[in-house]
């Protein structure tokens, strides 16, 4: 593989573009307009500069990554020559399907189309294209430049060749892939959402403070980050959308905590908004 397009320059899209660029791939990052992409470029450059200054990136990798990154608001220009397109937009199935329909028309017939969804169906998305065998989910984790795992989720029609291809790409990005057969929530999101939702219920019930719930999980169960800290990092609006989807598809045990619903209505979305279960400056 030589060229990757990442659609969506939010937290995950920026991270995926960065990870692909430092791995030697030519990368096009696409979003709605140049203003959004300008902010994404500033953030990625800041991460690249910091990684180089701290010694995490050698000079050659740093220089190549800067040269490899391109920012393009026109989806056709961004995706027409790519070997792999990774969609990283909001967890809204209608939005994802609309993007994949466009990509199906734009991209060469051998281009792999991947969605960075944490819960949604690559089968449903792939069925809206003429190439369901080349549609797959690649679930990256936040922060992408630090997290080593990629869940590779096989849809009903996804071919063995496609799965093998994205596993190889994962290795070239210094990630480890696990193969998952499609089922709502896959592996990590099902577990993560349950743990996080129960932590929110305990906070709402007054069992313990947010700080002590997170400390108990980190020191008692050896989690690297507490479930409430992690929810703030992911974004409470994103977590709510995931919970609503899992509640719809898997039933009562995934009913979103009322406190989560209240926080999202209040605009307390976590780290990105400055407040969630914690306050951020």
TrEMBL record:
Enumerate the spans annotated as 3-hydroxyacyl-CoA dehydrogenase C-terminal domain: 185-280
The domain of life for this entry's organism is Bacteria
* Pathway involvement of the protein, from the record: Lipid metabolism; butanoate metabolism
Marked site (Important for catalytic activity) residue numbers: 139
**Keyword line:** NAD, Oxidoreductase
* Name of the top EC class for this enzyme: oxidoreductase
One GO BP on record is: fatty acid metabolic process
Q: What is this protein called?
A: 3-hydroxybutyryl-CoA dehydrogenase
**What InterPro entries has UniProt attached to this entry?**
3-OHacyl-CoA_DH, 3-OHacyl-CoA_DH_NAD-bd, 3HC_DH_C, 6-PGluconate_DH-like_C_sf, 6PGD_dom2, NAD(P)-bd_dom_sf
UniProt entry tagged with the keyword NAD: yes
Reported EC number(s) for this entry are 1.1.1.157
Per the database record, which ranges form the 3-hydroxyacyl-CoA dehydrogenase NAD binding domain? 3-182
Does this entry carry the keyword NAD?
Answer: yes
Q: Which GO terms describe its molecular function?
A: 3-hydroxybutyryl-CoA dehydrogenase activity; NAD+ binding
| Family per similarity comment | Belongs to the 3-hydroxyacyl-CoA dehydrogenase family.
Q: Which residues are listed for NAD(+) binding in this entry? A: 8-13, 31, 91, 96, 118, 142, 272
List, alphabetically, the Pfam families matched: 3HCDH, 3HCDH_N
